[in-house]
C-alpha cells in the first residue's frame, strides 16, 4: 500500500524506521549476489540507500529503489555498512527515520588478493573423556565441552551459529604453524544446539572473511 492512501496527518516530518535486510544472507560469497530489502510499516514504497564511509558518516549512494535492490555480482567495492530511508517522491516533507545498520560481508577472498581461502576448521572437544568428536556431535545436557577453531592462515576467527545469526569474535593464538581459538561451554544446554560454522579474518573490523569451515551440527 502506498502512502497516498493513508491519513496525511500521520505523515508530517520524520517517521518510524524501516527495516533493512539481506537475502539470502548478509554473508555473501565473492561474485555471488545479494538482495537488499527495505520494509516500512507505514507504507513507504520508495527508499534511498546509504552506506557508511571510512569515518562512519553516512553517504547517499545515488540509489533509489522500490522495496528491494540487487547487488550482482558481489565485489570488494560492495562490502560495508548500509542503511535505508523511506520517502515520498512527490512530497519532500514525508520521509522515515534511517534504518538500523546492516553489515554486508564478502566471503572467500583474502585482503592480500591471493584468491579464495578455505582455511578454517571447527571441532568439539569434550572435557571428559578428552578427545575430538565426529562432525555430527551428540552432546548431553550438562556436559562440559570446548569448541576449537583452527586456521593455518588467518589469526582472527568469527563463530557463526546457524544462518543470519549474530557472530562471535575470537582471537587466535599460535598453534602448530597456524592459529587456534576456543570457547568453553559449561554446562551445555539445549540453547547451544544448532549448526556452527567459523570464518577466518585478518581483523575484527574486516568486511572480508574466508570461506566458511565445514558445518558442525551439535545435537543436545
TrEMBL record:
Single GO BP term: immune response-regulating signaling pathway
InterPro entries listed in its UniProt record: Ig-like_dom_sf, Ig-like_fold, Ig-like_Receptors_ImmuneReg, Immunoglobulin_dom
Record-annotated Immunoglobulin-like beta-sandwich domain positions: 25-93
This protein's UniProt keywords: Disulfide bond, Glycoprotein, Immunoglobulin domain, Signal
Highest taxon in the source lineage: Eukaryota
UniProt keyword annotation of Magnesium present: no
Cellular component annotations (GO), alphabetically ordered: plasma membrane
Alphabetical list of PANTHER family matching this protein: KILLER CELL IMMUNOGLOBULIN-LIKE RECEPTOR 2DL4, MHC CLASS I NK CELL RECEPTOR
Protein name: Immunoglobulin-like beta-sandwich domain-containing protein
Amino acid at each position: 500500500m502506498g502512502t497516498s492512501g493513508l491519513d496525511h496527518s500521520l505523515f508530517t516530518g520524520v517517521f518510524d524506521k524501516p527495516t533493512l535486510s539481506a537475502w539470502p544472507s548478509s554473508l555473501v560469497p565473492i561474485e555471488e549476489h545479494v538482495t537488499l530489502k527495505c520494509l516500512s510499516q507505514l507504507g513507504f514504497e520508495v527508499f534511498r540507500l546509504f552506506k557508511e564511509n571510512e569515518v562512519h558518516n553516512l553517504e547517499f549512494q545515488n540509489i533509489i529503489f522500490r522495496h528491494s535492490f540487487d547487488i550482482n555480482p558481489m565485489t570488494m567495492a560492495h562490502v560495508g555498512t548500509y542503511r535505508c530511508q523511506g520517502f515520498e517522491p512527490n512530497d519532500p516533507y514525508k520521509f522515515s527515520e534511517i534504518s538500523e545498520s546492516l553489515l554486508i560481508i564478502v566471503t572467500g577472498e583474502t585482503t592480500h588478493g591471493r584468491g579464495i581461502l578455505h582455511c578454517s576448521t571447527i571441532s568439539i572437544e569434550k572435557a571428559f573423556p578428552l578427545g575430538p568428536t565426529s562432525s555430527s556431535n551428540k552432546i548431553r545436557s550438562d556436559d562440559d565441552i570446548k569448541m576449537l577453531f583452527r586456521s593455518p592462515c588467518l589469526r582472527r576467527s568469527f563463530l557463526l551459529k546457524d544462518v543470519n545469526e549474530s557472530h562471535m569474535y575470537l582471537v587466535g593464538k599460535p598453534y602448530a604453524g597456524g592459529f587456534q581459538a576456543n570457547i568453553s561451554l559449561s554446562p551445555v544446554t539445549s540453547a547451544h544446539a544448532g549448526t556452527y560454522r567459523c570464518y577466518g579474518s585478518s581483523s575484527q573490523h574486516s568486511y572480508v572473511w574466508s570461506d566458511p569451515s565445514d558445518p558442525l551440527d551439535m545435537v543436545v
